[in-house]
Amino acid sequence: MTRIVAGTVGGRTLQVPSKGTRPTSERTREAIFSRLAHYEVLDGARVLDLYAGSGALGLEAASRGAVAVTLVDSARGAVDVARRNVASLGLGATVRVVGDDAARFAAGLAAAPGEPLDLVFLDPPYDLSEASLAGVLAALAAPGVLSPDAVVVVERSTRSAEPAWPAGLALLARKDYGETAVYYADPS
């Protein structure tokens, strides 16, 4: 069972796609959000959750004070589940769900940035190539996409190489939780 850990909808359960996703464990989400609270990035944040799956990370951010959250996933089943989760939690005024490829969506932001993002989650499938991940990170590092105090959170397998940080993003910290390595980066 996946649930929101804390905030305005804390304790509420989430549906998860029946296949094709690897939901972030509750323990890992709790640790991620503890660190984000330390970085003081959540309150009033504009959030992007790429490879969103059920939307658990972005929905947790909305529950904890983010004012605008975009969940992006290319799998139709994940998009449908994320939309149901947004509706059941009553977060439709804050959260939007987009069915799109993460790399294409990020490239669109780089080409025409809107309001800068304060927090970005990337929790791609572990088998996503390092080159594909590097392309998404490079798009996010484009001028105008991130706010100066933004934080980018990347989840990978502990067996994967550290992401290749493009010019414009620098590693803040890495924390491991079982099989999951969580990287935190900010604009450099």
Report on this structure.
The chain is an alpha/beta fold and 188 residues long. The protein has one domain (2-15, 23-187): Rossmann fold, CATH 3.40.50. Helices cover 30% and strands 29% of the residues. It has five helices and nine strands; from the N terminus they run E-E-H-E-H-E-H-E-H-E-H-E-E-E. The chain has helices at residues 26-38, 56-63, 76-89, 102-111, 130-140, and strands at 2-3, 13-14, 46-50, 68-73, 95-99, 117-122, 146-157, 169-177, 180-187. The strands form two sheets. Strands 5-4-3-6-7-9-8 form a seven-stranded mixed beta sheet. It is an enzyme of class 2 (transferase). InterPro entries: DNA_methylase_N6_adenine_CS, RNA_MeTrfase_RsmD, SAM-dependent_MTases_sf. GO terms for molecular function: 16S rRNA (guanine(966)-N(2))-methyltransferase activity; nucleic acid binding. This is 16S rRNA (Guanine(966)-N(2))-methyltransferase RsmD.
Number of strands: 9
CA-to-CA gap between the ends? Answer: 38 Å
Main sheet strand line-up = 5-4-3-6-7-9-8
Structural class: alpha/beta
CATH architecture: 3-Layer(aba) Sandwich
Separate helix tally? 5
Radius of gyration: 15 Å
How would you describe the oligomerization state of the chains in this entry? Answer: single chain
List keywords for this structure.
188 residues; alpha/beta; Rossmann fold; seven-stranded mixed β-sheet; 9 strands; 30% helix; globular
What is the topological layout?
Elements: E1 2-3, E2 13-14, H1 26-38, E3 46-50, H2 56-63, E4 68-73, H3 76-89, E5 95-99, H4 102-111, E6 117-122, H5 130-140, E7 146-157, E8 169-177, E9 180-187
Parallel strand pairs: 3-4, 3-6, 4-5, 6-7
Antiparallel strand pairs: 1-2, 7-9, 8-9
Helix pairs in contact: 4-5
